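Why does residue order matter? Because the sequence determines the fold. Keep that principle in mind as you read this record.
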Amino acid sequence: MTTEIRWPEPYVTEALRAVRDTSPLVFGLTNYITAGLNANMVLAVGGSPAIGGNPAAVRPLATAAGGVWINLAAQVTDSPELLLDAARTAHAAGTRWVLDPVTVGAGISVSDDLAAELIGSVPPTAVRGNASEIIALAGGSATSRGVDATATAEDAVPYARRLATRTGSVIAISGPTDYVTDGEQVVAVPGGHRWLTRVTGAGCSLGALVAAFLAPGTDPLRATVAAHAVLAVAAERSALISRGTGTFAANVLDELTILSEGL
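Structure:
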């Protein structure tokens, strides 16, 4: 059975309030193209982001942070060993962390191997990806076209449930309707807007938001659902007042800020 959750479901607003009130440190390893938008979305909901792959800073930040997100696209500047070090440090410290398996299933063996190593040795609290990435991560045959999915979110739900059961991680699938599962419960998060797919870094920023929502200690399934629901409503509201994707991206940040500060 699938449950549908939208803003302003009470536990979604409670999860956002927890981020705003605690302003958690959220540490991320991501790629330079999306880092600014990632950081600004975390700031908009009330978190305190730190981004970067300075080897000397990774262990202290992964230990001190309330939440960590690791985007495999960080490999454009950071080594796989550095990403593994961040995940292992977070795991050892009890820091909740999020994996964004960008390009898994696209034929890039280093990403496939790194994702398998991370999932197998230090399972993340949550995984957020598109349908093709989640299917591939679960051992299915779907392939992705670079960072774009070639499967639907609905196609990926059975794979996500199996992956969640195997790893103990919450698995989130992005699409026109997002799906989040802990292996037993499946939650659908409708909404958002098609322009999210035309803003570089919007999906990567969702991984950062999930880490921020996990940081205060909110139940992992609810925190992951809440992050998706908050971005969905911010995108819907932004689209109503935007002329195109440029103003849309800026207005999403405004709407996230208004949601957070209006609680």
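DSSP finds ten helices and eleven strands in the chain.
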